[in-house]
Specification:
The complex is a heterodimer of chains A (about 325) and B (about 425).
Chain A (H helix, E strand, L loop, with lengths): L1 H37 L7 H22 L9 H30 L3 H23 L12 E3 L1 H8 L7 E2 H23 L1 H11 L1 H6 L4 H26 L4 H6 L1 H11 L4 H19 L3 H7 L18 H15 L11
Antiparallel strand pairs in A: 1-2
Helix pairs in contact in A: 1-6, 1-9, 1-11, 1-12, 1-13, 2-3, 2-4, 2-9, 3-4, 3-9, 6-7, 6-9, 7-9, 11-12, 11-14, 12-14
Chain B lengths: L2 H20 L2 H27 L7 H16 L4 H31 L4 H31 L18 H20 L4 H21 L1 H4 L15 H6 L1 H9 L4 H32 L2 H11 L1 H6 L4 H27 L9 H15 L4 H30 L7 H8 L4 H16 L9
Helix pairs in contact in B: 1-2, 1-16, 2-11, 2-14, 2-15, 2-16, 3-6, 3-7, 3-14, 4-5, 6-14, 15-16, 15-18, 16-18
Classes of the chains: A mainly alpha (about 325), B mainly alpha (about 425).
Chain lengths: ~325, ~425
């Protein structure tokens, strides 16, 4: 019983939140890694792209709610998601046309593109704050829980409850579907294959007749979808605040780099590595240890390795360790 | 400096003077003081990016460390807190540092294999728990000492001007640690690494209450200039203010701001002189050679990594100095006010717009962009009034548009940065 209780407590407070957070990071990191692989720069505007997509989704969600359209028990935001993706795709294609294309044709150094993306970041950040404001917005509706802690206790007779929120369930299911679709697209379709070829060797890809503009366009479209989905899932799970999304840049980049920049599989693994380390290091282990340790040896303190405010420090420490020992990431990434 | 550069500087000066006439001299001086500090930050970033091509986006962290330096030097020590746990905290920190040092030595000296992994793990885990066992009770003891007013160790109680170089030294120390680990990495990785370090510095300053009271802020830092209230009570000052036709209150605020401005200008002039000398010395030419072609410079026998480390430390120290100056000007340390958009990316806009690689360009960019950053809000407000003038009063859209003008400045900065990068990529005063 003790062991089971410990296991349930562990799943409730560590495993489930970390899996949900990891899925969100993985989707974000996939976007970063695709841009890095194909357009060859680190896109600092990614966090704000996520914020923009989420903002459009939130606005459409509110409109749908006002009209009384919903898909209860699922959150209305899922219905609004395609609108968010479409708007973000338009924004990204527009940005590419107005801003990035010029530097691509100039064959500018990657670091110049990074600085350019900083400018885009300012604009997107300002745009988001201008339209929806800098405050916290909650837009989750529908059923709150798949399993409630009390129901679980009654069902199993354990003293520890297990709660799975709907948003966590949706996050994981959506992430699995999106990743499966993405890998099918990259590995099986003609466009996907040309994208991978372009990422591997640009000159060779151009020689074999791949149209670079098409590859770039598809990349932005996919990135728009990934960023919006990641942003909406994060917003459903926690809440939507433009500044938080900007701050997500750090764990997202850490995930992409830990996995190996430019490597989609690495981005997913990196996302989970970062999420699990953040949650385990900042979790107060007292509850689990009380069940596991023999009487008398139970810890008196919280057994929290670091306070939750240091979660950035965790993702950063992992990043540095991986970079020092495996400079191209866990999976072989590319370097410009 | 060519005639065009001088004209540009004259234009910026005109902006400030115009503000003085149109708004108030108080506003103009407030903007000018922060503009001078921004110019110093931009000088620091220009050293790293303009001379050496190092992509550092952790400026916020170095600025914050400078601010921490101001508190640690100038605030009076809290003797009760030192008695309660000062020595123990220092001991715990020493244990922590020794653990890391031992782990590094073990990793270097022992041959790779299971024995090394196990030793490392044992060292790190044992060291961590020993550190926490020493650290936690000491911190609890310190923070228990009069938490409403102090609850921290306090500083050294020295004049605050000393904290300016000390702030620079703190930032330089942090830069040495970061540079040692991250400078070998590619430019993108260095960028992310510095971004992360900056966030960590802020997280530490927010949470370690024993150090500088965390989010409870440290208020009332001593000043290098007189207080307004003392001036208003001095008969001599009132007479002199009256001679300028000013009432004592306005006169004293202007006098204080002007004194700060003179101090900052002195620092800025010294820094410009030093960096001009450095840039046009053999050392400066070597730096630019390394930036333009690392391989060639290395083939000529230049130690690229060491030079990068050197300039990284120098540039960060200048940012730390500016940070200490800013905290002195504010008279308080508020860790939650450090935001990357304001303290990292805005400085980058200054350097790029001003002209990377040119010290005068960085200074011009710092003053100009800071002026815009402040003035875009009232300008945007006016613009919005104009746009919404036709709309009926009380409509939700009008209200929303008027409320959102505060966010115009981000938008404007982005547009300015993109326009300069596109049409004048070398900045207003290009490198020569």
């Amino acid at each position: 019983m003790e062991v089971l209780n410990a296991l349930v407590a562990l799943s409730n407070f560590v495993l489930i939140p970390a899996i949900a957070y990891g899925s969100q990071l993985a989707l974000g990191a996939l976007g970063v890694t695709l841009i890095y692989g194909i357009l060859r720069f680190s896109n600092f505007a990614h966090g704000d792209t996520m914020a923009f997509g989420t903002m459009v989704t939130v606005l459409v969600t509110w409109a749908l709610q006002a009209l009384g359209i919903g898909i209860a028990p699922l959150p209305t935001a899922l219905l609004a998601l395609p609108f968010g993706i479409a708007a973000t795709a338009l924004l990204l294609l527009g940005t590419d046309r107005v801003v990035y294309r010029f530097y691509r044709q100039q064959k500018a150094a990657p670091v110049i593109l990074v600085i350019v993306s900083m400018g885009v970041m300012f604009i997107m950040n300002g745009l988001t704050r201008f339209i929806i404001g800098p405050d916290d917005q909650r837009f989750a509706d529908g059923a709150r829980f798949i399993i409630k802690a009390r129901e679980f206790k009654e069902m199993t007779g354990l003293s520890e409850g297990l709660a799975i929120r709907t948003t966590q369930g949706i996050t994981v299911v959506t992430a699995v579907i999106v990743v499966a679709l993405l890998f099918w697209f990259l590995n099986r379709t003609r466009t996907g294959k040309s994208m991978r070829a372009f990422s591997d060797n640009e000159d060779l890809a151009l020689l074999s007749g791949i149209n670079p503009d098409r590859v770039v366009m598809y990349t932005w479209l996919i990135v728009a979808a990934l960023a919006t989905i990641a942003g909406v899932l994060y917003g459903l799970d926690k809440s939507f605040k433009p500044f938080t999304y900007f701050q997500l840049l750090l764990p997202i980049f850490a995930s992409a780099i830990v996995g190996g920049l430019g490597n989609p599989l690495g981005a997913i693994v990196g996302g989970f590595v970062i999420a699990f380390s953040e949650v385990t290091v900042t979790y107060a282990w007292k509850k689990v240890l009380v069940y596991l340790m023999p009487d008398g040896l139970e810890p008196t303190g919280l057994v929290q390795l670091m306070s939750t405010d240091y979660k950035f420090a965790v993702s950063f420490a992992i990043l540095i360790i991986v970079l020092l020992f495996r400079p191209t990431g866990l999976f072989k990434g590319k370097s410009v | 400096m060519t005639r065009r550069d001088a004209l540009l500087f004259a234009f910026v000066a005109l902006l400030f003077i115009g503000t003085g006439f149109v708004q108030s001299w108080n506003t103009a001086l407030t903007i000018l003081n922060m503009g001078l500090i921004s110019a110093i930050m931009a000088l620091g970033v220009n050293m790293q990016w303009g001379y050496a091509g190092l992509f550092n986006i952790g400026i916020m962290g170095f600025v914050a460390l400078g601010g921490l330096g101001a508190v640690l030097v100038s605030m009076p020590p809290v003797n009760a807190a030192w008695a309660a746990g000062g020595a123990r905290v220092l001991l715990a920190l020493a244990v922590g540092a020794a653990t890391i040092a031992a782990a590094v030595i073990a990793w270097r000296r022992m041959t790779a294999g299971r024995a090394r992994t196990l030793t490392l793990l044992a060292l790190l885990i044992g060291g961590f728990f020993l550190y926490r066992a020493l650290f936690d009770p000491a911190v609890a003891a310190i923070e228990a000492v009069n938490p409403a007013a102090t609850g921290y160790l306090g500083g050294l109680g020295l004049p605050i001007l000393i904290s300016w170089p000390v702030g620079g030294l703190l930032a330089a120390g942090a830069a040495w640690v970061i540079g040692k680990t991250a400078l070998g990495l590619r430019s993108d990785y260095l960028a992310i690494a510095t971004l992360g370090i900056a966030e960590i510095v802020i997280a530490v300053m927010k949470n370690e209450d024993w150090l500088a009271r965390g989010v409870k802020n440290v208020n009332g830092l001593p000043r290098p200039v007189p207080y307004e209230i003392d001036l208003q009570n001095s008969a001599g000052f009132i007479d002199r203010a009256a001679a300028f036709g000013l009432d004592p209150v306005t006169g004293s605020t202007l006098f204080v701001k002007l004194s700060y401005g003179l101090l900052f200008t002195a620092v800025l002039l010294i820094l410009i002189w030093l960096s001009q000398r450095a840039l046009h010395s053999p050392w400066g030419r070597m730096m630019r050679a390394i930036r333009d072609n690392e391989v060639a410079a290395e083939a000529m026998g230049k130690d690229v990594t060491a030079r990068h480390l050197q300039i990284f430390i120098l540039g960060s120290a200048v940012c730390g100095l500016a940070g200490a100056m800013m905290t002195t000007l504010d008279g308080q340390l508020t860790p939650s006010s450090y935001q990357p958009l304001r303290f990292t990316f805005l400085i980058w806009v200054m350097v790029i717009v001003g002209g990377s690689g040119n010290n005068f360009g960085a200074v011009l960019g710092g003053m100009l962009i800071w002026f815009l950053w402040i003035q875009v809000e009232p300008l945007g407000n006016g613009l919005m009034q104009l746009i919404t003038a036709g709309m009926e009063d009380g409509s939700a859209l009008k209200q929303h548009l008027l409320d959102s003008t505060a966010h115009m400045r981000l938008l404007t900065m982005g547009v300015v940065l993109l326009l300069v990068l596109r049409f004048s990529p070398r900045g207003l005063i290009p490198e020569r």
